[in-house]
Amino acid sequence: RLHSPMYFFLLNLALLDLGCISTTLPKAMANVLWDTRDISYAGCAAQVFFFLFFISAEYCILTIMSYDRYVAICKPLHYGTLMDSRACATMAAAAWGSGALNAVLQTSSTFSQPLCKGHYVDQFFCEIPQILKLSCSKTGFIWEIRLLVASIVIVLGSFIFIVLTYMQIFRAVLRMPSEQGWHKTFSTCLPHLAVVSLFLSTGMVAYLKPPSISSPSLDLVVSFLYSVVPPTLNPLIYSMRNQEIKGALRKIIQDTLFLQQKDVHHTLKATKTVGKA
User: Hey, what CATH topology would domain 5-234 get?
Assistant: First the structure.
């Protein structure tokens, strides 16, 4: 039952969440444990690239998942045709490819600029707005701002698509006579919209806020909210709240416990046999 388009995209989302968290938190935790804040120039560039790659691809996957739910609820008779295995693989590959393209453009533009205002990034990971503060090239800075604005316009377009998609879903669900269908759809869709909204709002504040309201504590909180909180909440929203995934997980745990008990039983039986001998 888990071999369906929704769970295929959930697998991609889980991998992207894991990659996003692994890009920032391990280095930050190591710096805290070893009481240091050093990172190499190549390491900083790699961190920017992989973070942008994972976070961009993740947002594309979230957009695709909203379309998947729209087809499943509003066009159920065409679901097998529109969301076959080939179409799902193509959309997933497009999401990963879009994330890689955005990461290459943003990273190459950011690190092609000379840094003449020090080498201290006031953040727990290498973040583009903090790196741009160290740049002394006005031309490169303007080009990078254009790239960021273009990315934000695309993200807002995807968000509008997600909202319109869920409006169609809610309209179709409200026509259903079963209240159980209402509860199941709303309990899945509303948390999804909440996480996407949190990611977008905090990301826009991090990248578009004016310098006059910038402060180290505010930058830290905002960056934590958009880089750590959504990837952490996604497994809870899409996995732990899903009955089929919980059922499969419960079956795996029960089978594992049964095998362990069987092994213990055989061990005790063998021990008794040796003792009698």
Answer: Rhopdopsin 7-helix transmembrane proteins (1.20.1070)
